[in-house]
Amino acid sequence: MAKIGGTLDIFDVKGNTEGKKFVVETIFARKARKQDLDKNQCDLVIGSLLGDGYLVKTTRGYAFRVNHGPAQKDYVDWKYSIVKNLVNSPPRFAEKCCYFRTVSHSFFDELHGKFYSVRKKIIPRSLIEKHLNPFILAVWIMDDGSKDWGQLRINSQSFSKNENLFLRDLLQAKLGIITTLNRDKSQYRLRVSSDSMEALKRLTLPYIIPSMLYKLLP
Q1: Beta carbons of 200 and 192 less than 8 angstroms apart
Q2: CB distance 155 to 191 below 8 Å
Q3: What are the percentages of helix, strand and coil residues in the chain, rounded to 5?
Q4: The pTM is what?
Q5: What Å distances lie between residue 107 and 74, 78, 94, 120, CA to CA?
Q6: In the chain, which stretches have pLDDT less than 70?
Q7: Pairwise CA distance, residues 32 & 6, whole Å
Q8: Radius of gyration of the chain (CA)
Q9: pLDDT at position 7
Q10: Please, are residues 135 and 46 in contact by the beta-carbon 8 Å criterion?
């Protein structure tokens, strides 16, 4: 019997199944899969999927993976602290990145059906319209925000022009944040206007961790 990453036990089986292996999940994984995510956890995942987070295929469905550079270790640790009841092992370093992955879960299966189309991440409009709040926006900024003089650029180039237009309109309608579309070669990203920066800070600073404050503060 051997451990793989502390997550699964693998047994060699003799007889008619010679050379085959059966994968058995741990008690932790079985228990974690049965837990409902709380609102804070759901919002963290949604905000991350707007940004750099993604869902990965597993043998049992989909899992949430967080992957940032070594300089953002505090941010990875913060995300881990929120969903650690769904993670078998703490963040690790590999190939100049810091990462962790949750167990697979039915919630992530559901989100994958909404956030992905033929392996490409998309904006699930009804879901974002329903759930967008200051915490989700703060996570999105910590993932994809860049200070741009007196403004903030949200690097949303992975989404289409129409999706960015939807996000622009929703940010103003739901949170009162005015943004414009900024062209980046053939792609588009959002830029928060100078007039909305104070409102943006008021909404999101309570959730921005210290190591990420440079994205909003001088």
Answers
A1: yes
A2: no
A3: 45, 25, 25
A4: 0.87
A5: 26, 21, 27, 19
A6: 1-25
A7: 15
A8: 20
A9: 38
A10: no
Give the burial class of 140: count Cβ atoms within 10 A of its Cβ; 0-12 exposed, 13-18 middle, 19 or more buried.
buried
Q: How far is CA 130 from CA 133, 143, 160, in A?
A: 9, 21, 20
CA pair distance 128, 50, nearest whole angstrom: 9
Are 159 and 124 a contacting pair, CB within 8 Å? no
State both tokens at 47.
């905000």
What confidence score (pLDDT) does residue 54 get? Answer: 96
Q: What is the pLDDT of residues 156-187, one digit of tens each?
A: 999 999 999 999 999 999 999 999 999 989 99
Q: How far apart are alpha carbons 102 and 84 in whole angstroms?
A: 8
pLDDT tens digits along 43-61:
999 999 999 999 999 999 9
Q: What is the pLDDT of residue 205?
A: 98
Pick the CATH number of 125-218 from 3.50.50.60, 3.40.980.10, 3.10.28.10, 3.30.465.10: 3.10.28.10
How far apart, in whole angstroms, are the C-alpha atoms of residue 144 and residue 204? 14
